[in-house]
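Following the same procedure, sequence and fold were stored together, as reproduced here:

>
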Amino acid sequence: MQWAFLLLLAGLCSLSRAQYDEDPHWWFHYLRSQQSTYYDPYDPYPYEPYEPYPYGVEEGPAYAYGSPPPPEPRDCPQECDCPPNFPTAMYCDNRNLKYLPFVPSRMKYVYFQNNQISSIQEGVFDNATGLLWIALHGNQITSDKVGRKIFSKLRHLERLYLDHNNLTRMPGPLPRSLRELHLDHNQISRVPNNALEGLENLTALYLQHNDIQEVGSAMKGLRSLILLDLSYNHLRKVPDGLPSALEQLYLEHNNVYSVPDSYFRGSPKLLYVRLSHNSLTNNGLATNTFNSSSLLELDLSYNQLQKIPPVNTNLENLYLQGNRINDPSTKNQHSKPSKNVPCSQSCSCDFQPLEGSISLCTIRAFSENF
């Protein structure tokens, strides 16, 4: 029986040798084929060098050496840049563009500033209704070439930059989601009462450096407004009403000649008011005009005041230089500070405070009248 088994084994060996005479490495191939059934399941290619698949080919949930960087977006206009690291931002600024390019639907932040764009055609943003920021400042946009409903469809828009253009009218209607509106350095002449209707989330409104002569009651409904800048215009009167949340009011470089009695009481959070370079006189100011306990800084410099107007005792800084004030209570302006009046950290205790209400900073500013 043993002899029969040995003869059979010898025959198989001779057959195998004859089969692989042409391949001197047959034994290596044999071992490799046997080992391939015991590969590590976590190693995709145990015996061949691993090379990742090219983009666009589905290989599986993970790569052997980590996930590759995302491919370049293919829907970005050739006039713009869409960085892969910021897939929702599109940069088209400073390109000498004369028109607005196509905006992909995934965009949330678009930058078109400092170009030669003169119009915003209707429907240009219809494909990107999720936009949060639109920067169009530093162009040549005119009011006649802005689509009527161009912005109202953008229900998530938070910041709109249209400053440094050629607008003559307030744009609108605007979405309720808007938080910042930049319209400064244009040619807007008036703000209609309904121009800002529904903007209950607006916190900052920039209208400085325009030709505005009248504001009316357009600001009353802006219940979240914190900052209002109407400086460098042609206003003859202050707005009819201020929002209750207002903290900063800038009205310098206008033609305002009067402020109503208790005007600021409707804004209990108001901190800073600038009315310098106007036409204010004492006849145009009532006794309680500036009697607001929240006010910290009041700038009345470069007006036509002849007397210091009454202010609240909480006021820290009052600027009066450039007026016509000739008040006998300031004759001792170079005397030593009173021991009964504390010196504010923001003030220099160089002068005697005015009796009754005004802080040391007041005298410091007032002294520049002489």
Observations:
- The chain is about 10% helix and 10% strand.
- Residues 15-69, 330-360 have pLDDT under 50 and may be disordered.
